[in-house]
Design a protein that fits this description.
By secondary structure, the protein is an alpha+beta fold. The protein has helices spanning about 20-30, 60-65, 100-110, 135-140, 175-185, 215-220, 220-225, 230-235, and strands spanning about 10-15, 35-40, 50-55, 70-80, 80, 90-95, 115-120, 125-130, 130, 150-160, 165-170, 190-200, 205, 210. It is globular.
Length: about 240
């Protein structure tokens, strides 16, 4: 068995669907036999893709790397709304999907591009008075939430096959993509929810450099060490 060593740096993991970001952190802790492991930006359990894992002293970079702009791709299904705004929730309303052209749908998406305020969904990890919203939501409670500033730089259709629409999205930190999907459905007066989501990139980091979690768990520690991005290289300013 390889000796335990104090590792440090940024590790890019490709998160599988069905796991929380904390689940992934736990798996990395077990593999590296280290407690000082964190991440820079949560992904919903349904979502896949880039999860920035911070190892050792690199956990100090959290505030810098969490604030990076993100790129996502995914699928919106029109005509059905859910209580979580994604496919993990229960369908709450079903409405007919209007006859739309791709150009009309894109025009509706364009309304969400730019600076705006977004209200976090009840099924989220946001804390209000010390309690996670999703815990209140599971009890059937709804509380007032403070809207948060977000910026959407790009929101474009990549596949148009009603009732499904595939998209690519560039946005700021803290953007709830499933809320954008739900709001898009409201705008079209038919409802919608997110059925797939993948984080493709977080600023200079992207999935082309990430390791699938199952592969990571089979790697030798020495090979993992080679995959670690040094903290000074991971800092956003390091490219200036």
């Amino acid at each position: 068995m390889e000796q335990k060593r104090d590792l440090e740096g940024v590790l890019l993991i490709d998160k599988p669907s069905g796991m929380t970001s904390h689940d992934v952190v736990d798996q990395v802790r077990r593999k590296l036999r280290m407690k000082r492991i964190g991440h820079a930006g949560t992904l919903d359990p349904m979502a896949t893709g880039l999860l920035i894992i911070l190892v050792g002293k690199a956990t100090k970079l959290s505030q810098f790397l969490t604030s990076l702009d993100k790129t996502y791709s995914g699928t919106i299904k029109l005509g059905e709304s859910t209580n979580t705004q994604d496919a993990d929730g229960e369908i709450t309303t079903t409405k007919p999907v209007p006859e739309l052209t791709q150009e009309q749908a894109q025009e509706a998406l364009n309304a969400f591009v730019g600076d705006q305020y977004q209200t976090p969904p009840m099924f989220s990890a946001v804390k209000i008075n010390g309690q996670r919203l999703y815990k209140l939501a599971r009890k059937g409670q709804e509380v007032e939430r403070e809207p948060r500033f977000i910026r959407v730089s790009k929101f474009e259709i990549t596949r148009f096959a009603l009732p499904e629409i595939d998209f690519t999205l560039d946005c700021s930190k803290g953007t709830y993509v499933r809320t954008l999907a739900s709001d898009f459905g409201e705008k079209l007066e038919c409802g919608a929810h997110l059925t797939a989501l993948r984080r493709d990139a977080s600023d200079q980091f992207d999935t082309s450099r990430s390791i699938e979690l199952d592969s990571f768990k089979e790697m030798e520690i020495s090979d993992i060490e080679k995959k670690l991005i040094p903290a000074h290289e991971a800092m956003p300013d390091s490219r200036l």
